């Protein structure tokens, strides 16, 4: 075998090992986030009557919906923690450039994590969350055999109709705003244009909702905190309180 071919095989083998290592690290990180989100959801979710032991079908539906919600929360938490993780990993690599044990914190891993978060975010937003909601509300088509698959069929049909409705509304909006070939061509490319645009719009709506609800939440939090906490009596003026008490006593006596 020629030396050039040996070098090419060595480079390919090294790239393969790096890809396998990155896949294992991503799987471990996501598994950790999934377990954490599962404990969070099971801690805060309320017990419902349809999860009883005697109703296996509803209990299975609830478990599937819980798994989908846990997956979505893990993806959301990963999206929130990805930027701090990128900054910290970059600082660690700059501080210890020759350390062998932290070389896995490279740019290829961060780029792969960004791609996975973007993929799973769109999948959770477009498919998983609507499917979980419609799946818990479904009962199967009339006349069909009851079971999990009947609910899956009904949920898939409803989700397909909802997708067609959203796409139709987008086509109508595109025809109203700009009826040119470029706007129509952009709608054909769902992955490169439509899904990022939809993701950005929903993110903007979430940020606006956060900015709208945060002041009210903070005001309610401070109001509740002021009611629960006892004010310290060290800085109170006793002479002023005695004067107020005398005035109140005089006013009551005058009324009597």
- Major pleated sheet: none
Name the assembly state.
single chain
What would you call the structural class?
A: mainly alpha
What distance lies between the first and last C-alpha atoms, to the nearest angstrom?
A: 115 Å
Q: What is the total tally of β strands?
A: 0
Total separate domains: 3
Average predicted confidence as pLDDT:
76
* Strand residues, percent: under 5%
Order of helices and strands: HHHHHHH
- Overall shape: it is extended
Unreliable stretches, pLDDT < 50, 5 or more residues? 49-53
Tally of separate helices = 7
Radius of gyration: 29 Å
Describe this structure in words.
- InterPro entries: LIMR, LMBR1-like_membr_prot.
- Pfam families: LMBR1.
- This is LMBRL protein.
- This protein is mainly α.
- It folds into three domains: 131 residues, no CATH class; 39 residues; 52 residues.
- It is built from seven helices and no strands.
- Helix 1 packs across helix 2, helix 2 packs antiparallel against helix 3 and helix 3 crosses helix 4.
- The longest helix has 42 residues.
- The radius of gyration is 29 Å and the shape is extended.
- About 2% of the residues have low confidence.
Notable traits:
256 residues; mainly alpha; 7 helices; 81% helix; extended
Please render the helix and strand layout as text.
Blueprint: H1 3-44, H2 56-95, H3 107-137, H4 148-177, H5 181-188, H6 190-228, H7 238-255
Pfam family, one: LMBR1
Keywords: Cell membrane, Endocytosis, Endoplasmic reticulum, Membrane, Receptor, Transmembrane, Transmembrane helix, Wnt signaling pathway
Transmembrane segments: 24-44, 64-88, 108-136, 157-177, 197-224
